Amino acid sequence: MVRWWSVRLWGAHLLALVCVAFAAGMGVWQYDAWQERRAAEQMDLTEASPVPITDVLGPDDPFPTAGLGRPVEVRGTFLDAGTVLVSGRDGADGEDGRWLVTPLSVGATDQPAVPVVRGWVPADTTIDDVPPPPSGEIELVGWLQPTEAAEDGDTDPEQGVIPHLRVADLVQLLDGQDLYGAYVVAREPLAADAAAGVDAATLDQLPPASRFTGLRNILYAIEWWVFAAFAVFLWWRHVRDTTAAPLPGEPADVDDPEGVSPSTA
């Protein structure tokens, strides 16, 4: 009976190994290409040319999926009220800190406002330590982000420190001011904030790539892995059939040096 390590099966073993390695490698290559294309689309959006925020989102509009992380231009005036610190925000070097946030009216002061992350400050900074928002009309560029969700709301927003950047928490600090359902992370602090020691905030999220981005690559990867599995199946069937014991009355394979020749009377 032929054994699986028999010399006559070495060619099948080698062929199966080459086919599986090649197909698996091609699948990994296509999978990596899929990931790279999705990552590139994410980065491309954050590096896109800024557009006015009103072209992407209205005051009462739901947050658009295509707007996540998109650079937007905002022109308006910072409100006197509503400045808060958002706790639990890592700095550029990973140290714990807080975001400095102030609503900015989009247009005139009585127009709806969008919360703007002016920058990052150390964790021991209190609301009394932060610089006041710059006065007059301001124009800045930042990344658009959706309002954050939280299971528990801030229990004491009047203290000026909140755990999540939620529009619902900021509304409590304003007297009837309408707010956008989103916020903007400024690319860099304004000159007055930078002079006061406010650092640039880091972008929390990257925009998710479209589900169809790189679809062909991931399908090719799956196809190659199916080929690899099929090659394993064919190898297994061939080895199984070749090494199967002969049926009673059947002569052993005399061509195999390890075969067992039937005894003669």
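(the above was protein one; protein two follows)
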Amino acid sequence: MTQPTTLIRTNLHDMLVAGIREMVIAGALRPGDKISEQALCQRYGVSRTPLREALKVLASEGMLELLPRRGAIVANVSPEEIDELFPVMAALEALAGELVCKHASDADLARLGAIHEHMMRAHAAKDEPTYLEANRSFHETLVSVAGNATLTASYMQILMRTRAFRFVARKSPENWQAAVRDHHAIMDALKVRNATRLSRLLRRHVMGVTVKIARDAIAAAADGNASIEAGELPKSA
């Protein structure tokens, strides 16, 4: 068991919400996982009362579901929600690309370039966990350096619902290679600050390979659940 994390009591509520949110976004808690109140209380050194208030906030954001007599679970995403959420995410990233080309500093572009190179090294080494984390960092950094707080807030809200099917789900070799090709093109447009091309590439990336990865992940999860219900052993990763 890890040692309790020390929290500043005046910011207890916000820090609990942020800490649990990050666990979900990073994939430490996955869709369908039951939230262990006891484990989180021990992790953060708090009682159940402030923890449950934090869980209510995350449920209101759509990140968690509160089930009668079962507690909280990490929310799943349905195929119908993919159709709703990903076009909005694509539009937000497309706008972020335009703003980055116009307003980001050279240092911001260098930071994005460094993250991109880290991703490509991970891909060459077939280190998918490192690639996925760097991929998430690239897109979050891109949106952040666009310099629009409303855009960032809207993007992060949708990310909470889709992160497991974008930055956590395992990719097929074909999907991974397609994602890498997209990222090379995105980086090329970013280097020359071609706002129109970058915007178009980001929208196509999200609505193309990213949506396919999400749909494949949902289908794989459904197949796994069906096998378990039929009495079959789950396949190893």
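Reviewer note on protein two: DSSP finds nine helices and two strands in the chain.
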